[in-house]
Amino acid sequence: MNRKSKVSRRERSEFLWGWMFLLPTMAGLIILNIIPIFQTIYQSFFKTGAFGKGNVFIGFDNYGQLFSDGAVWQALWNTCKYAVVEVPFSIAIALVLAVFLNGKIRGRSIWRTIYFLPMVAAPAAVAMVWRWLYNSEFGLLNHLLRGIGLSGVNWISNPNIAFISVAIVGIWSVIGYNMVLFFAGLQEIPRDYYEAAQIDGANGINQFFTITLPLISPTMFFVTVTRVIGAMQVFDSIYMMMGRSNPALVKTQSLVYLFYKYSFIEGNKGYGSSIVMLLLMVILLITMIQMICQKKWVNYS
Amino acid sequence: MKRKWWLTAAMAAVMAAAVVGCAGKAGNETAPASAGETKQTAESSGESGNTAAQGTLTVAIWDKNQEPGLTEIMKDFTNETGIKTQIQVTPWEQYWTMLEAGATGGSLPDVFWMHSNEIARYSEYEMLLDLTDRIKESKKLEMDKFPKDIVQIYNWEGTKQYAVPKDIDTIALWYNKTMFDEAGVPYPDKDWTWDDYAEAAKKLTKADGSQYGFALRPTNDQAGWNNIVYDMGGYVISDDKKSSGFDQPGTIKALTFITDLMKEGYAPPYEVMAENTEEALFEAGKVAMITAGSWMLPELCNNDYVKANCDIADLPKDAASGKRISIYNGLGWAASANTGMPEEAWKLIEYMGSKEAQQKQSDLGIVISAYEGTTDNWIKAYQGFNLQAYLDMMSDLVIRPYSKSTVAWNNMSHEKLIDAWTGAKSVEDVCKDIAQEMNAMLAQE
Q: For residue B70, which of A8, A256, B253, B310 sits 20 to 30 Å off, Cα-Cα?
């Protein structure tokens, strides 16, 4: 009892205000994220009727169907392939650009704006434009290829190429965002290190690998974790770019695409939910591995 | 060490939470997002004699091409009854998401279009206003003037009528006159068989890949391969809606006929067709023939290239059976079960189904009206095109295949047919596979 009286009025008011400021975010998180998570888990055990009515409890039947559904595993594999292409390239390119645009280059802010622009454009609009660029018959890319005497490429209808084409759009869209995060990381590195390195005779490439890269690793870690999660959730570009009669769709559709198809086109929300649960588990696993592996390469100075 | 591991797990969980959170959110937010896209049009506020304080009926449709014409008809309705209406256009892709969200949240539009793909679950869960008794008592509405099949679509298990037919659509053949002239092929006429079609496709195909005979996608069922299947004695679903017809010899024969033409190279490579609609290829002068539904008229007839070079003919018939079938479908006007203005909503539906409004719908060239004998003026809608072909096709109609789970088996069959189209699997294997899976789906209905 004695201890409690020691909490001053000031401390109490700070406590209250602290929670007040947290409230809007907490409310959003709970209503838009936490509650839907539990609803999704709940739904995945039901054969759902239309309009939120007529749900029948079926235990683990959805999961049983999930494990024997070839399309789901193919979609998981597609998603991983996409992530393997998108994540490393979007990070590497963004980092190199960030280093260059962090230096003294003429028109620096214009370049930064240009690279960040795709982030501002609506993803659906971006996908539509790329869809036309990629069109095998009337698209600009094949027009140029034919112009120099090469044969056209079926960018989005060849099963072996389509996921790369989609990933290129993903990389292009996200470079600007990654770049901005790297800018923040680069600001943190004290200039003295570079000066000292210069005096010791290290060139730009040496500096990049011995100073920039180790010291930016915390930012890199954050970008990697969020990018992997983002890439595993790819949906809009596939949905917008690939038509339903596209022969490459089966080899390109992601888990979220499959979830959308089952839940919202075919109205089977229960099965859709179980697919999302699988995705959740996969992402959870990958993220945990990343968390454990970070000790090996992330440098918190 | 142990504590740290848990910290790691917790952090991973929080990050991963974003996934499911987003997934759930996507579902909940689709509705408002698409509602945002919904274009609201000016109220049709005629000078009504009845100025009593009444609300405005919200009317949801998905085809913006029909909006001006329907607004005009509803203006007449407002003048007659004093009930105001407001049309909201939501594109087809978002329309059903919007309607589903509305039904789930109890905020459906007052009056809206229904389609054979979706009517089953709306009836099953009683989301629609039961019109049975009102139709019986109505003096304006004569249900026997509408095609039986269309009335039947919107009838729930023979007891409840949930919608009144609005229009019907038929399929016809579009051909490029310039290409036919160049190749020296006579224009399609009423004696044309599918063999003539194949012969023409061959002659119209150029070896350098700049021009092909025809284009047809596996997703183009009603306006495409369905017609040939029924002509050749096959079917998609049995009359009792209990079994699939994909394993029928006629169905396999028809699909083999189409895929053989593709193997011969009379259609563009599958990848090109997958990325471009038949209409786009036709409008670009890439293919000489396509089959298209009457709902495509505003698109095709307003295209300058099509206007200058193309015309419409009846679909070919099958030489063996002599059948020239057009698959047809028709929309219905339905109302929400929990609308605040059931009487007003009913009056609008009754009016839209009356001979007067149906006649006007055809006269304005909006669509082919469902009401018997109101379609004569429709052919004047687009000058310079032989629209009569679409009306000719009404002599042998088969309703678009549907059951309670149409969307599910339809999508499944489209996906599997891709392998037949590309030649990756034999037509027979694909058809048997589809039949098996479709039968399983039908058994669950």
A: B310
Task: Inspect the interface and report whether the beta carbons of B20 and A36 lie closer than 8 Å.
Answer: yes
**Using the beta-carbon criterion (under 8 Å), do B415 and A266 form an inter-chain contact?**
no
Contact B198, B257 (CB under 8 A): yes
Asked whether residue B80 carries a pLDDT value surpassing 80, the answer given is yes
Contact (CB<8Å) A229/B125? no
- Residue among B7, B19, B117, B125 with most chain A CBs within 10 A, to mutate: B19
What pTM does this model have? 0.82
Out of A34, A49, A233, the one facing B22 most closely (by C-beta) is: A233
pLDDT digits over A144-199, tens only? 999 998 888 999 999 999 999 999 999 999 999 999 999 999 998 998 999 999 99
Work out the mean pLDDT of chain A and round it to a whole number. Answer: 91
For CA atoms B72, B73, B74, B76, the dihedral sign is positive
Distance (Å) from the alpha carbon of B119 to chain A's nearest alpha carbon: 12
Mean pLDDT over B260-268 rounds to: 95
Could you tell me if B48 and A63 are in contact, meaning their C-beta atoms sit under 8 angstroms apart? Answer: no
Q: Supply φ then ψ for residue B289, to 5 degrees.
A: -140, 140
Give the one of B24, B411, B422 whose C-beta lies nearest to A40's C-beta.
B24
Query: B9: which chain A residues are within 8 Å (Cβ-Cβ)?
Result: 288
B414 touches chain A (CB under 8 A): yes
Domains (range + CATH), chain A: 68-297 (1.10.3720.10)
A-B interface: how many C-beta pairs under 8 angstroms? 142
CB atoms within 10 A of CB B93: 11
Domains of chain B: 20-169+329-371 (3.40.190.10), 171-327+403-443 (3.40.190.10)
Confidence of residue B256 (pLDDT cuts 50, 70, 90): very high
